[in-house]
Design a protein that fits this description.
By secondary structure, this protein is mainly β. The protein is 5% helix and 40% strand.
Length: 655
């Protein structure tokens, strides 16, 4: 028994020694598992001068960067060691103002990262390829604004600031912008933004732009603290990258002239920038910029009349992907210059008043925007069919058109009944008449009237939304044929039952007709896009309906009787005939007036009147109005009767 107890005690001792040794060996791993992951952050900017260009994480000089005032320097921040369920934060710090002998503006605001300068969105070290960044917040800076782009796993983004580190108007000032966020998956996150290089006087007046920065370098950093500039930071796990990104003097140049090229959708000469007032981001209601537009700078020397500016421009550039252009400082003669846009014949200028603008350059950047729109005809179907700029159906005006009328608009006119274009300038939807739509024989016939003075082959394409899915499918290309454009109507017929399910008859349908100068390369998709020459006409057809005509009225005057009536829908109406008789029961009636329907084959109404002056005083006349239907039938409305009373004037007896 005693030996058994000793054996048990010995085994127990071995057990506890084993536990103690294992615990000692595993202790570092236990503490490692319990400790949070370290956050590592890397901040790079884009060097645009070296070949190949790329993300760079250090001090940039003139051999690596070649920016001009007014441009945006792209930045990327990558963070690793993150976890879901935690709110993180960081501050973007940047030099804003330097008060020297001549004050200087540095970076004046955070902006959208300039995609035209960064074709490669792959973060450094990311071998999986570029992520698809999404807009996750907006900056509201001093002098401008923009959007923060992030990787798709970033959520709950808040942005605050900028917070100046000194509020004195003449003190050297840097700004802090606070960003907080969470992630939904993974352990890393990417952030894309831009820093805008200040133009002259943008942060203080008078002050040089960023090219005049007299400090050792223009700096930006990502920090875990604002140093007190942000008085009430929310609770979060803050981190920074530590390293400073610096741009040395000489890596950017002053701007002699800069500006934007925009598409003036409503043609009013005023650039609508949307809610965020930022040309680098496209918002609802904003008029977009135009990429690749040619801008020229002419040096007129000392000629203040701007008439002796040489035989050619001195510099030429193209607008970037944000529509921005700039000309750097050059060894010019000046001080008189003119900046000009090269305006294609297919565009209408709305701003400024002329293609060239004269200016006297001294020390301040001259800023000039240009606005115009296409000299084109646009459609008016709902936008789901592709109606609005830039991809909507549009035709630059030329010598090929549908019907007798065509007008130009700067933008499509989407509307539920496809009739908004009819209210702009003129009702130019007059080239197509849906003349036959039979339920039993399935015949669909449209009458096409067009004119052309060129030598090509006019080509007509029509798409009907047979499946009513509010868009055109390739299988819905209903007409695809050459047409004769001699100003006379020509009929095109097809079997509409081949486009719909058996025993289905459309009650209403949207359709688009486009006339091209030659067959498009991809006809089934040609309901979208810009074409040179031709016209687009959009329609909404309610289906076969009875004519909707008001009962006529007759109003007697002193020497005539006026007969009037009104229509509300002329889809099935060809015209009207007005008859008269002095005997309301007689079958013999005199035809006194005949007129075609104003909107024949259209779901629009009009008003009509006729003044009958061939009358005798005191005689009663009865009128009948016949409505001529497109199926060959006639609808006679109820008769009306009127007369002009015979007036007898008695002599006045004077005493």
């Amino acid at each position: 028994m005693e030996e058994k107890m000793k054996s048990t005690q010995k085994m127990s001792l071995y057990f506890w020694w084993t536990v103690l040794i294992l615990g000692f060996l595993l202790l570092p791993q236990i503490f490692t598992l319990a400790a949070p992951m370290a956050i590592n952050a890397t901040n790079y900017h884009w060097e645009n001068k070296t070949i190949p260009s790329g993300w760079f994480g250090g001090n940039a000089n003139a051999n690596q960067m070649d920016y001009t005032e007014g441009q945006v320097v792209p930045h990327w921040l990558g963070a690793t060691g993150l976890a879901t369920g935690t709110t993180y934060g960081f501050y973007i710090y940047y030099n804003y103002f330097l008060n020297g002998t001549v004050p200087d503006c540095g970076f004046d605001y955070l902006a959208t990262w300039n995609t035209s300068l960064t074709p490669d969105k792959t973060p450094p070290g990311n071998t999986a390829g570029a992520p698809t960044p999404s807009v996750d917040g907006s900056f509201n800076g001093v002098g401008g604004s923009g959007s923060l782009y992030t990787s798709s796993n970033v959520t709950n983004v808040t942005i605050a600031g900028p917070f100046p580190d000194d509020t004195s108007p003449t003190a050297n000032t840097s700004m802090y912008v606070r960003i907080t966020f969470e992630i939904t998956s993974g352990t890393s996150a990417d952030f894309y933004y831009g820093l805008h290089l200040a133009l002259d006087n943008s942060c203080y007046s008078p002050a040089d732009g960023a090219s005049g920065w007299s400090g050792a370098s223009l700096q930006t950093r990502v920090l875990a603290s604002s140093g007190g500039a942000d008085a009430t930071p929310p609770t979060a796990t803050y981190f920074g990258s530590g390293a400073s990104l610096q741009i040395n003097p000489g890596a950017f140049k002053p701007a002699v002239v800069a500006g934007y090229k925009w598409y003036d959708l409503n043609g009013d000469g005023v650039w609508q920038l949307g809610p965020d007032n930022d040309p680098n981001t496209f918002d609802t209601g904003e008029e977009p910029t135009i990429t690749g537009w040619t801008i020229q700078l002419w040096d007129c020397g000392a000629d203040s009349t701007y008439t002796s500016c040489g035989a050619s421009y001195q510099l030429q550039t193209l607008t970037d992907l944000t529509g921005f252009y700039t000309f750097p400082w050059i060894n010019n003669t000046g001080p008189y210059y003119k900046v000009c846009e090269v305006l294609p014949s297919s565009y209408i200028r709305t701003y400024p008043a002329a293609n060239c603008v004269n200016f006297n350059f001294t020390t301040t950047t001259f800023f000039q925007n240009f606005g115009n729109y296409l000299n084109a005809d646009w459609g008016d179907l709902p936008e789901t069919y592709g109606t609005l700029y830039p991809n909507g159906a549009a035709h630059i005006l030329g010598n090929l058109q549908l019907g007798t009328l065509i007008d130009r608009e700067g933008q499509g006119q989407p509307s539920t009944n496809a009739d908004q274009d009819d209210l702009v300038l003129s009702d130019d939807e007059d080239g197509i008449f849906l003349s036959v739509f039979t339920e039993y024989s399935h015949n669909l016939t449209i009458d096409v009237t067009c004119s052309y003075s060129g030598t090509g082959v006019p080509w007509l394409l029509a798409w009907f939304d047979w499946n009513a899915n509010n868009s055109f499918d390739a299988a819905e290309t209903t007409f695809n044929t050459a047409v004769t454009c001699d100003g006379l109507p020509h009929s095109l017929t097809t079997d509409w039952s081949t486009f719909v399910e058996p025993d289905v008859r459309p009650e209403s349908i949207y359709f688009r007709v486009r006339l091209f100068e030659g067959q498009p390369a991809n006809p089934t998709l040609a309901f979208l896009g810009l074409a040179v020459n031709g016209e687009v006409e959009d329609y909404y057809w309610y289906g076969p309906t009875a004519a909707t005509v008001s009962e006529p009225t007759a109003i007697a005057g002193s020497q005539a009787i006026n007969i009037g009536w009104e229509t509300f829908d002329e889809m099935d109406i060809l015209g009207f005939r007005l008859y008269r008789s002095t005997d309301p029961s007689s079958q013999v009636r005199q035809l006194i007036y005949e007129t075609p329907a104003v909107f024949r084959g259209r779901q629009r109404g009009s008003t009509y009147s006729f003044t009958d002056t061939n009358i005798q005083l005191g005689v009663s006349y009865t009128y009948w109005l016949d409505v001529l239907m497109k199926d060959g039938s006639t609808m006679t409305l109820d008769p009306i009767t009127a007369s002009v009373l015979l007036r007898i004037y008695l002599p006045t007896i004077l005493r």
